[in-house]
Amino acid sequence: MVFTVLRFQPIRFAEEEWNEFCKSDDIQLVEPTFTKREEFIQELKDGKFKDVDFIARTFQSASISGNFDKEIVTLLNEYTNVKGIAHCGAGYDQIDAKSCSEFNIEVSNVPDKVSASTADTNLFLILATMRNFQLGHNNLMNGKWENDVNCASTPLGHSIQNKIVGILGMGGIGCTVRDRLSGFGLKKVVYYNRSRLSPELEKDSEYCSTIEELIKESDVISINLPLNKETFHIINEELIDKMKTGVTIVNTARGPVVDEKAIKKGILSGKIYGYGSDVFENEPFIDKEFVSMEQVTSLPHMGAATSETIKSMEVHVLDNVKSYYENGRVLTPVWECRK
């Protein structure tokens, strides 16, 4: 029986591995020709993908298909044979995994492949935001160093030593951030998670049973949560009011876990010292007034953007496809689809 995979682009580094997998006469690869969601929906209803058994998708593919929300998942169930979706990313908020589970469609992600590079980005943002490095660079480029040899008029920042860092979300990335920070002379690391880690994973970090407990204690807050209905705008005005005055907040998770208007208000009031972020609420259509604030350090969603990381992610997507083809189960199901 032929196993048909609908594969979304881009595939930048794992084409050779895909070509090897597709040498089998039992494997058929289909790639989309539609360019927008409406066309995808119509082609689903027309039966163009009726023989598709599995979908390999990328973060970028949402630009042509839209998110795999309940509408799309329902159509996949009705008009295709799809029983598995492999997503090329650790975060999978583009997919309604709960609806997939209800239709017995397995969803997989790449939970560990992005941890190192994203944690590196996270640490960069913590240091750059606390030390005003982005503002310093901007001042240098604007010629201020020529007139003020004292750091080009850039205000003094803060050292990370003896600070308390709170990690909000202690999954693979959160744990790697904690490990990256181990040599910086922190006072301690505290964390909040859906459930407490085992002693082996917790190491010397301290568990907080509530988010409020974590934010009241932390000098620096690292956001490493997935985006879902429960975490949307979890960092809001009410929570910010309970934080220490002068807190630094860093986000390498997803933009909408933060209410950017509340962050802006917190910066203007002095409650928030600085905000460093790789992700934004309406990216790529960002609030330019917000990111141009002197206290904001910004990157264009570069957390996992290394060639080594992207290749490992793409290969892991293929491994999930292979696993389903050979065993009827993906390797790394998301928690909504675990049995």
From TrEMBL:
- What residue stretches are annotated with the D-isomer specific 2-hydroxyacid dehydrogenase NAD-binding domain? 124-303
Superkingdom, natural source: Eukaryota
Fetch the InterPro entries from UniProt.
Answer: D-isomer_2-hydroxyacid_DH, D-isomer_2_OHA_DH_cat_dom, D-isomer_DH_CS, D-isomer_DH_CS1, D-isomer_DH_NAD-bd, NAD(P)-bd_dom_sf
What's an example of a GO molecular-function annotation for this chain? NAD binding
Cellular component GO terms, alphabetically?
Answer: cytosol
Q: Does the keyword Oxidoreductase apply?
A: yes
Which PROSITE patterns does the record match to this protein? D_2_HYDROXYACID_DH_1, D_2_HYDROXYACID_DH_2
Keywords attached to this entry: Oxidoreductase
Ranges for domain D-isomer specific 2-hydroxyacid dehydrogenase catalytic: 34-334
Identify the SUPFAM superfamilies for this entry. Answer: Formate/glycerate dehydrogenase catalytic domain-like, NAD(P)-binding Rossmann-fold domains
Q: Which family does it belong to?
A: Belongs to the D-isomer specific 2-hydroxyacid dehydrogenase family.
This chain belongs to which protein, by name?
A: Glyoxylate reductase 1
Instruction: Tell me which species this is from.
Output: Pichia kluyveri
